[in-house]
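Hi F.,

I've been meaning to write this up properly since the lab meeting, where we talked about keeping a consistent format for the predictions we share between groups. The idea is simple: the sequence comes first, exactly as it goes in, then the structure tokens exactly as they come out, then a line or two of notes. No screenshots and no reformatting. I'm using this chain as the first example so we have something concrete to point to.
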Amino acid sequence: MAGRYEIRFSGSGGQGMILAGIIMAEAASIYDTKNVVQSQSYGPESRGGASKAEVIISEDPIDYPKATSIDCMLAMTQEACSKYYKDIKKDGILLVDSEEVKNVPEGEFSVYTFPIIATARDKLGKTIVANIISLGIITELTGIVTRNAMEKAVLSRVPPAFLELNKKALHIGFEKGLELKKG
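Output, unedited:
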């Protein structure tokens, strides 16, 4: 990995985008020992409106803490996608929930679509783990953190009663991410 890598998680308040950002930051910093800056914005939109979390990952010191040139963006809602996609850089990645984002923007970036929320509901019976599925997909699409680091970060953040559910969600994400990457 060269230089800085910027990831934006976006969706609506309550979808776990902030937690996804924190987990990604911990996977990269604690378990993969990279430099990380993590931030979020969810003022008045903490329930319902567009929210985002950003993670900057680098092997070098991070001199500017704001994400300005997004390498990978997750959009879980149409509103978040439309509002936040403009910073995705050339050759970047846009991952969208295919059932929530119908109007996918075009640009000089790769687009991956997958029914993330529906998969969480249908395969695991809980839409709340859609963010964990997305972390698995992003881990595979970007290679920015190792599977091992991501799994440790996820499992360190969830209550004991939900360890197995979250582990299953993450592994579904890893599988789907590999499939998407292969095309």
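Notes:
The chain has a mean pLDDT of 94.
The chain has one domain: 4-182.

If this format works for you, I'll send the rest the same way.

G.
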